[in-house]
Amino acid sequence: xxxxxxxxxxxxxxxxxxxxxxxxxxxxxxxxxxxxxxxxxxxxxxxxxxxxxxxxxxxxxxxxxxxxxxxxxxxxxxxxxxxxxxxxxxxxxxxxxxxxxxxxxxxxxxxxxxxxxxxxxxxxxxxxxxxxxxxxxxxxxxxxxxxxxxxxxxxxxxxxxxxxxxxxxxxxxxxxxxxxxxxxxxxxxxxxxxxxxxxxxxxxxxxxxxxxxxxxxxxxxxxxxxxxxxxxxxxxxxxxxxxxxxxxxxxxxxxxxxxxxxxxxxxxxxxxxxxxxxxxxxxxxxxxxxxxxxxxxxxxxxxxxxx
Length: 307
Known about the structure:
Layout: H1 10-13, H2 20-30, E1 33-38, H3 46-57, E2 62-67, E3 84-86, H4 90-102, H5 110-137, H6 148-187, H7 194-229, E4 233-237, E5 243-254, E6 257-264, E7 271-274, E8 279-281, H8 284-301
Parallel strand pairs: 1-2, 2-3
Antiparallel strand pairs: 4-5, 4-8, 5-6, 6-7
Helix pairs in contact: 4-5
């Protein structure tokens, strides 16, 4: 399915007449990705647990258990520590192949992997059903299904083990915290004298006062400009140097500068002009034009015209 993989299976990959033990040991040491097929019959086999343990100890290795005719609850011994994949579950097997593909140097794209998986799944599913049938026909020579009490006993044992581990870690952390506190207390020295602290506090207060005064002046300047310009006929040049004329709609601040939104005649999109470049037209013709522009805009927006 994934062309980059070079699979090894002892039954087919060792030459006739070759000593199998050294070859398998070498392969186990070189393998980074392994699939361990677990059945009800072989889960307690010494050779299977030996190979799985050897693979798990290898650096950067991944051991993936594939359960054929057995459920995760029925797996016992060292193999129960792994994250299992159900061979009969299509989505589970799909995630297994995606995980292996992600660890390849040149992984397949998700679209290609999905297409190949869909093509190969029917044959794989048929083989799994065949193996499961053989297992049932063998009369269940493997371990019998675990009882509920056996499963609950294992869960209780794991919970207690986890609690002991957590308590040990907590004790170690508390010990380190005490050591750090004692060291810091021993090395602690006054950082600032009282006089230096007072001077620093006064500088902070002065900086805060200046910032508040600057904000008050900016707000006052903005309010004064709004009162003087809003609703007036104004003109000026925009950022592109174009001459703009219309009605002052609002005053806005950008950084440290003030700008005026100007509603251009015949347009609903305002232009933004720098306040310092604004010219106010106070003649009666300009005032009437400004009033007509406001009335037209309010009518387009569905608002009543100004009194």
